């Protein structure tokens, strides 16, 4: 199982490293610069608002289904059509609730138009994630990896044409970005549906009330968890827009969004780990196989990765913000400097929380696979409470910077408790030597990072030097031990043979 994890992780990361950097630096950056802070701030606020109700599209079904199919492959053909029907009905519920609440809080005109398309995209995304939960539940990780980047690949093509072909009249509009996303999701959905149907058989939607109620009852604990996590992960842009005066709201939301976009990109990589780990943990726990070795390997990889990324963001925040969002036409030089200073500070704070977020993708996933949802929901509920208190105190006084500190605080809070709970439930013991290795890695990397910033070389050369040094230091300190990986590969054949026999 460990070999399968490592092999598919390598494939997944390769795909994302080929596509995501161009997406972030080429397309996403260009879109934000083309539409300006106000328009992008409007989009981010509407998107974050729509995401708050994303739980209504799923009610925990995707996570439940992923774990269930991983443990019982034969249930795919039996459950697929019924769950697909439930998902479509939930799409109608989501649309109604989202628009009613949006109207009640004052959304009108352009906000409602944008919300309609963003909401449609959320419905399509939910359906894609459900289809992918079946694919990864069958442990078809390469196919799932391809579908995880397909919509971005299509978006790169579409947005490139819209941005640089000259085919469209006038300047780029934020709604074009949303329309392109709709088309990308539709294509991805159709292809994923065809792929799943090859394993599930013919899709015949059917309304079976007893089956729907059974699925919803089993998935509700997952639903509550997703709802609570959505609130403390996505609430800041909405609260910035709602708590600040109108003349500052969208501008501050846009500033926050520039830094948050890089955190979100990093989080997507960490999320991919959890997509791989959840069905593996579920399968291993069902067979009562020890998970400690896989947990330690996953923790080592994701911690090393998050420390390197957070360190680079800390050391080169101003340069990254200038690169990502160069001077816009509406900016005076003084205003540009102020925005860079503010967004770079927010980036440093948010990327500090990236380490905490990454840790939750390991231990939260392990606890989910084990069915410890009650404790996870209590932790997430505490996270929401901490998040609301911090945001209501900090945003009116410190604006977007205050929202960043609120995010940092809640992520550290939830990560620490989840990690402690996982160590207690599974009796995990990494050993004193392992923690010494982690400390050595952090110290060595910190020295290399500081050294790279004082060398008389261009910043991007220092950035590359620090990145390379960070990767080498993982091997030097044996945080990622080639010997351990070799041992895992040697024993993997036995695990896989046993798994196939039990299936």
List keywords for this structure.
503 residues; mainly alpha; 0% strand; disordered C terminus
- N→C terminal distance: 14 Å
- Chain-averaged pLDDT: 81
Query: Major sheet, described briefly?
Result: none
Domain module tally:
2
Structural class: mainly alpha
Our Rg estimate from Cα atoms comes to 23 Å
Oligomer classification: single chain
**N-to-C order of helices and strands:** HHHHHHHHHHHHHHH
Strand fraction equals under 5%
Shape: globular
Low-pLDDT segments, ≥5 res: 487-503
Helix amount, in percent? over 70%
- Annotation field: number of helices: 15
3D architecture notes:
The protein is mostly helical. Helix content is 86%, strand content 0%. The chain folds into two domains: 2-430, no CATH class; 431-503, no CATH class. 47% of the residues are buried.
